[in-house]
From TrEMBL:
<protein>
    <submittedName>
        <fullName>(apollo) hypothetical protein</fullName>
    </submittedName>
</protein>
<dbReference type="InterPro" id="IPR004244">
    <property type="entry name" value="Transposase_22"/>
</dbReference>
<dbReference type="Pfam" id="PF25298">
    <property type="entry name" value="Baculo_FP_2nd"/>
</dbReference>
<dbReference type="InterPro" id="IPR057251">
    <property type="entry name" value="FP_C"/>
</dbReference>
<feature type="domain" description="FP protein C-terminal">
    <location>
        <begin position="220"/>
        <end position="271"/>
    </location>
</feature>
Length: 278
């Protein structure tokens, strides 16, 4: 059903409706209260918006600070990246230079080790010799010479001293380095020890439980490491003899077979032909 608004305007109000001639005091109070409420709400909203503005301003400032920090880090990263690239380029140049000069470096290292070994040609190294306080090393060498029947006097010894072990935690006594007056004296001394099949500590009047005393040529650290490798391989592959003569490591599979000279790690491969025949 639809209502015609024009008819409503023309009709008179019903008799039970009366028109008010004025506004009551309650209505006036309500208006004041509403206005006061409205003003309070406006004030609260303004305060809230002011606080939000302050927070937003602070947030913008913090964001600007973060942005500045990020830019600083980015610049530093770019600098670091540039430096890394430069270092990488230099390392590549050095690596290429090392690769190019590798054969020459190896040659120089071998030559240096050879010169160092030559400087030790008159030296003998005695290991596992019991260490005593106040010991007289020259007298001990003379006693060894008497046992092996290869006379040596104090005049034949230029210097003698103990040296620390390469492993500081080792419980073995320090080795003794003897520098003889000539290489011939040194060689004869070592050969006599070998012919005597070694020497023990009780034979040279050192108190305590008998210990096997070893006498060898004084090798460089590089030669010692190579000698250790050769001995291990020889033991694994049933080589009967491994020894040193004039700074050169020699290996022999058996009595009738020829001796193989080992001067570098590459020479270890010389042991393979004999191993393959077994």
């Amino acid at each position: 059903m639809s209502i015609d608004g024009s008819l409503i305007d023309k009709e008179s109000p019903p008799p039970y409706i009366t028109f008010r001639k004025g506004v009551s005091s309650q209505e006036i109070d309500f208006c004041h209260e509403f206005k006061s409420f409205q003003e309070n709400m406006i004030s609260m909203l303004e305060t809230w918006f002011t606080k939000q503005d302050d927070k937003f301003t602070k947030l913008l400032n913090e964001f600007a600070s973060v942005k500045t920090s990020i830019k600083y880090i980015s610049d530093k990263y770019d600098d670091l990246k540039k430096c890394t690239h430069e270092v990488k380029s230099r390392v590549e140049i050095i690596e290429k230079s090392v690769q190019t000069n590798e054969p020459r470096i190896a040659y120089l290292e071998a030559k240096l080790d050879y010169i160092e070994q030559r400087a030790r040609n008159c030296n003998a190294e005695i290991s596992n010799l019991p260490e005593k306080r106040g010991e007289n090393l020259i007298s001990i060498i003379v006693n060894i010479a008497n046992v092996i029947k290869q006379p040596v006097s104090a005049r034949d010894i230029i210097s003698i001293h103990r040296v620390p072990q390469s492993n500081p935690n080792s419980s073995r006594p320090k080795n003794v380095i003897v520098k003889f007056a000539s290489q011939i004296t040194r060689d004869n001394f070592i050969s006599a020890v070998c012919l005597n099949k070694g020497v023990t500590s009780d034979q040279i009047n050192i108190q305590g439980s008998p210990q096997k005393v070893y006498v060898n040529e004084h090798l460089t650290l590089q030669s010692k490491e190579l000698f250790r490798q050769v001995r291990d391989i020889a033991k694994q592959n049933r080589y009967r003899f491994v020894w040193i003569k004039h700074g050169v490591i020699l290996a022999r599979a058996d009595v009738p077979t020829p001796a193989i000279a080992i001067r570098s790690e590459k020479d270890i491969s010389k042991l393979i032909p004999y191993i393959a025949k077994q």
